[in-house]
Amino acid sequence: MRIWISGHWNPSDKPAEIWLTPGMLVGTHALLPVAACLLVVNLRLAAGLDRLMPRRSLWWVGVFGVLPDLFSPHLSLAARFASRSHSMVFLVGAIILAAAAGSFFENGRRLLVAVVCWCAVVLHLAADALSGGIILGYPLRDVVVGGTFIPFRFWGWCDLGLLGLTWWLWRRSVALDARRSRRKLG
Ligand SMILES: [Zn+2]
Fold this sequence. Notes:
Layout: H1 26-46, H2 57-71, H3 77-81, H4 88-102, H5 110-130, H6 155-185
The structure holds zinc ion (ZN).
C-alpha cells in the first residue's frame, strides 16, 4: 500500500491515488448528524408528535460526529490511514462511549441518544471514506475503503451549506416546539 504524506493535488495521479489535506473539514462532521436529527425532530413536531431527541442531546451528537478526529487530529491522509480512531476498533469502542453519553439522559431516551451518537461516528467514517478513504481494518489490514469521490474544493462549501441548513432547521424546531407548547396549553 502506498501512503501519501503530501497533501498536494496531482491531476496526473489515478483517481484512487489523489489525496488531499485535510480531507474533510470538522464542520461537516459535526453538523451532518445534527442536521439529520433536526430534520427528524421537525417532521415529528410538525406531525404533532413529541420531539424524541431532547434539545441538549444534539450537542452530544455533534461532538460524536467529530470524535474520530478529536482522538487523532491529523492533516494528512497518511495520518488518517494510520489512525485507530478511523478503524473498526474505534467503532466497537465508540459503543461504550455512546452508552456513557446516553446515561446522562432520562430513562426513555438513553438508548436512543446512545444509538444516535454511535451513528454519528459511523457517519464520520462514511464521510471520510468518500473524501480520501479510511483503513477500517487498521492496524491488522491495509485495505483502503472508499476514495476521493467528492473533490476537496467542495468540502468548504459543504461546511457552509450545512451550517446554514442546520441553523434553519434549529430555528424551525424552536418555532415548532413553541407551537406545540401553545397547543398543549390551549
Ligand atoms: Zn476523520
